[in-house]
């Protein structure tokens, strides 16, 4: 059990459920992301962190620069709290926040919006009624089209150099906007564990296709405006994305925490920096202990990979008939026989920052010390 014994000892006074972050593991993971990015600055995906103290801690380390925010109200909040380079990773239709951004030149100088259609640009123009110039990044579809299949996420309709250059011209022609970047998120490389030869083949094929297309798109857009940002990648693709010289920055967040969805990649293995503790409240049968709470299922396709993993004591698993429950989570295995009422079982979450929507505080373990870090939720913030 190693670390979990130490976490349990150091947090024995707390009542479960509660979450811990191992700061040594977090730093180790940060350094490993920097190593993998090989000199390309890393923008921190805030959705995968959701704790300001940890975003700041990562930003202070060499190799990290800027935040990829997921919601405009979040971006405004971060900008007003000292974060100076914020790229919104996703389109926003938040009218009040768009108005606020356009009325705040300081925030507008720190935040770049993500756009992928003239319709969305028009929406922003109508909502952003203030005078501040708004920075714009174009999201380019980085999926792989092969054998009639679409491999990757369904996000941007922009794909070819001419598609992207056309929208770039529309942005550049409007004084309300400044075109500052393009982004390519290759989810089918970054977000897929290396579980089969077919997956590895798709990743290689996709990386080759994207390297060619990304270069052509960037050339086409640079004819229209100089670009400060060519963003690509995620935790699962740092070495591939940063190898392309046109890429000016990569994004990563999940790799700081090392959730279970990142357990099966060939070229890196983050340390398991975050976990949550649940208490045994019942022993319904031999080899089964039932825990209070714990049904924290991650977003995405509703599959087993989204369920939490009992991590310690070792050898426990969820029951197929109940999974991770709303207020009761049975776990099964030989080691359940050594568990008593009030004992702790440690769980790992499937994704990264999303887990912190369940907790106000993260207990940060540093050697033998424990301190409290507020999560976004603990700061009263919920950005969806
Ligand atoms: C646009 C974008 N970039 C990068 C990432 C990578 O984030 P992470 O490193 O947390 O996997 C994501 C995750 O979904 C994303 O949506």
UniProtKB/TrEMBL annotation:
Superkingdom in the source lineage: Bacteria
Family matches, as Pfam families: Ala_racemase_N
Example GO BP: D-serine catabolic process
InterPro entries (UniProt xref): Ala_racemase_N (IPR001608), D-amino_acid_metab_enzyme (IPR051466), PLP-binding_barrel (IPR029066)
GO molecular function annotations of the record: D-serine ammonia-lyase activity
Alanine racemase N-terminal domain ranges (all copies): 21-258
SUPFAM superfamilies, sorted: PLP-binding barrel
Name this polypeptide is given: Amino acid deaminase/aldolase
């Amino acid at each position: 059990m190693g670390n979990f014994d130490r976490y349990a000892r150091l947090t024995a006074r707390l009542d479960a459920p509660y979450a811990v972050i191992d700061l040594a593991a977090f730093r180790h993971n940060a350094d490993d992301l920097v190593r993998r990015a090989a000199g390309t600055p890393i923008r921190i995906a805030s959705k995968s962190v959701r704790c300001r103290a940890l975003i700041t801690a990562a930003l202070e380390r060499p190799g990290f620069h800027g935040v990829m925010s997921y919601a405009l109200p979040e971006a405004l909040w971060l900008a007003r709290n000292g974060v100076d380079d914020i790229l919104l990773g996703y389109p926003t239709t938040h009218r009040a926040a768009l108005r606020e951004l356009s009325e705040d030149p300081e925030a507008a100088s720190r935040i770049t919006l993500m756009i992928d259609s003239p319709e969305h640009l028009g929406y922003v123009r109508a909502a952003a009624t203030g005078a501040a110039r708004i920075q714009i990044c174009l999201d380019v579809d980085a999926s792989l089209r092969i054998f009639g299949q679409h491999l990757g996420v369904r996000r941007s309709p922009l794909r070819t150099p001419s598609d992207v250059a056309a929208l770039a011209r529309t942005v550049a022609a409007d004084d309300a906007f400044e075109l500052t970047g393009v982004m390519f998120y290759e989810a089918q490389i970054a977000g897929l564990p290396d579980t089969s030869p077919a997956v590895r083949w798709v990743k290689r094929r996709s990386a080759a296709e994207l390297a060619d297309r990304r270069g052509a798109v960037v050339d086409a857009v640079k004819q229209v405006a100089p670009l400060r940002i060519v963003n690509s990648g995620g935790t699962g693709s740092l070495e591939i994305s940063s190898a392309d010289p046109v890429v000016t920055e990569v994004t990563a967040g999940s790799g700081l925490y090392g959730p279970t969805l990142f357990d099966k990649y060939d070229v890196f293995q983050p340390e398991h920096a975050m976990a949550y503790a649940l208490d045994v409240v019942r022993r319904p049968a031999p080899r089964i202990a039932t825990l209070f709470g714990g049904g924290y299922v991650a977003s995405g396709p509703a599959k087993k990979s989204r369920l939490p993993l009992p991590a310690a004591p070792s050898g426990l698993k969820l029951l197929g008939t109940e999974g991770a429950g709303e207020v009761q989570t049975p776990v099964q295995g030989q080691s359940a026989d050594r568990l008593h009422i009030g004992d702790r079982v440690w769980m790992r979450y499937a994704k990264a920052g999303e887990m912190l929507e369940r907790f106000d505080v993260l207990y940060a373990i540093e050697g033998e010390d424990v301190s409290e870090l507020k999560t976004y939720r603990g700061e009263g913030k919920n950005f969806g």
